[in-house]
Design brief:
Low-confidence stretches: 3-19
Strand order of the largest sheet: 4-5-6-10-9-8-7
Structural class: alpha+beta
Largest sheet: 7 strands, antiparallel
Shape: globular
Strand content: 35-45%
Length: 163
């Protein structure tokens, strides 16, 4: 009987530990200024642009940058304490060349795509993968807090086209 109670408590504890908070920022919640800037881009680029919509912490759009080679979105954590500790950017590169996966740890995304963990350092994680003939890159710089590979997978798995 004691073993059953112990096992039940262990399962509940592990389940609670693995339950990440998930915050959403659907495309409809991106500011109107973002949509105005996106609409200025050529149609073929608008069709390629994607952004994450789920995050391990609550975020808002900080800035949007575009060049002929890429579009990049930076996010600011809503929590004032985290805003000094986390920098998050998502970039779509308009080419399909990623570094050799053999040099990096491979991570399977929720859609079955293989991504490479280009950087897995104490304060930086960069996940990169090919997607519809483009390269997607999710970069998170952090200090005094933790961002896991599961957090990266969740964000990468939540991509939605902007258009």
């Amino acid at each position: 009987m004691e073993k059953k109670i112990f096992m039940l408590l262990l399962i509940v504890t592990l389940g609670a530990c693995s339950n990440h908070n998930e915050y959403e920022l659907p495309i409809s919640k991106y500011p109107e200024s973002f949509q105005i800037e996106v609409n200025k881009l050529p149609e073929y680029i608008q069709d390629k642009m994607k952004v994450p919509t789920k995050f391990p912490f609550n975020v808002e759009l900080l800035r949007f940058t575009t060049t002929p080679a890429y579009a990049s979105v930076e996010y600011e954590p809503v929590d004032g304490e985290l805003s000094d500790k986390i920098n998050l950017s998502f970039t779509t590169y308009y080419n399909n060349k990623i570094d050799s996966p053999k040099r990096f740890e491979s991570i399977e995304l929720s859609n079955g795509e293989k991504a490479i963990l280009k950087h897995d350092e104490e304060e930086l994680k960069v996940l990169e993968w090919a997607d519809d003939d483009d390269v997607q890159q999710l970069a998170v710089m952090f200090r005094d807090t933790k961002v896991t590979n599961e957090d990266l997978k969740m964000m990468a798995g939540s991509l939605m086209t902007v258009k």
